Structure formats: structure tokens, C-alpha cells
L-ascorbate metabolism protein UlaG (Beta-lactamase superfamily)
Amino acid sequence: MLTDPLFVRRLAHLRRRRGALPPPEAAVADVVLLSHLHADHLHVPSLARLAPGTRALLPRGAARSVPGLRRLSHLRFTEVEPGDEVPVGDGGVVVRVVPALHDGRRLPVGPHRSPALGYVVQGAARTYFAGDTGLFDAMADEVGAVDVALLPVGGWGPYLGHGHLDPARAAEALARIAPRSAVPVHYGTYWPIGMDAVRPHEFHTPGDEFVRQAARRAPDVAVHRLAHGESVRPEAAR
């Protein structure tokens, strides 16, 4: 499975500062999970590189808001909303769609008609991909019991606004959800051009700070801070 693929070194004012670009084999997947319509999460040129026949789940109304999707006739799009459950493949895997607290529009001027989403992948284990989200009261109930949580802990700029998780808020989300394992994501890759000297710690340190905060707020959760290119089997590493 792929989540919000972005296969480029530069996107508008952002450039990739850490990690190699995903290899060509990354474009082959059983399903792609697209959390919301922002261009760094739903990137049409990256989706164009996906193998023919790839299935992609994306927020309801996306095709109306992102005309470029209509050119991607080689992909199989399924628009979803919170509460939907989508079987994937023949192995009994089900993707359950959950809400997220985030501006889901196609910025800068798109209308509010597509929700931001998270996904819970249910198979032999249950994995929560949060997309972009802030804390919300029903988060634990909506996500349910999961084994692994992929939680955003940073962003691509020096300040995180409403609808985002910083390391402390992500640790609070971890305490509410109480998975067995967690992986911090959405930090340390892209950064605005010309801002290397502006609050550089916001680029480098969110992963380490999340590990520290999680140890205090959710000490029973195994946290795996991965470098670019690293992988982990959470059950084996536990």
C-alpha cells in the first residue's frame, strides 16, 4: 500500500532536503490511500507514475475539485467518506475510512466539499494512517483498536497551524488511541526554499521530540523512529 505518494524533488516552494526519491518499484501497489486534496498529499504527476490498474481511494468529491484526476484513466479511483469499508485484494484486507480534523480543500481556492480522511487497514493486524489531522474529541472512538499508528508529528514549514499534530499533540493522540506500536511520519523531508535558517529545529527534531513525549504520555507504546529507507516489523521489534 502507498499513502499520499510524492515522487518529486521539488513541489512549488518546497524541496526535498532528506532522503532519496522512492525507487520505480514504489509505483507498483495494490492500493493507494489518499488522505486529502492538498497538493503535497494528492500530487497528480506522482499519481500518473502509478502502474496501470492501480486502485486509489480518495475523498468523496475529489474528481470535481481536482480536474487533473480525469486524465489518469489508467487508475481505478474509488471516492470514499468516513464510515466506508472497502475490501482490498483477495486476502481479507479491509480499509476502513475514518475522519480527520484538517482543511480538506484543494488549496488555495478550492471549496469545502471533500473531507480530510484517515484510514485503518484491517487484516492480520490493524494499522492507522492518520493523514494530516489535529486532535479531536472522538479520535479514539473513530479509530478504534489498532496495532500500529502512523502519526504526523511535523510539517514542511516553521509553524503548524490548526488541524495538525506537533510532537506533543501527536503523543497525546497516541495516549488516546493506545496502539501497540507507533511510527512518526510527515517531517524531515520537504522544507520551503530559502528557509533553511528559519527555525531549523522544526525540520530536524520532531521525530526525536515525539519519541521523548511518547515515552512520558504513552509509555506502553513501542515507538519506532525510522530514518529514510529504514523499515520495521512492529510485532517482531516489540
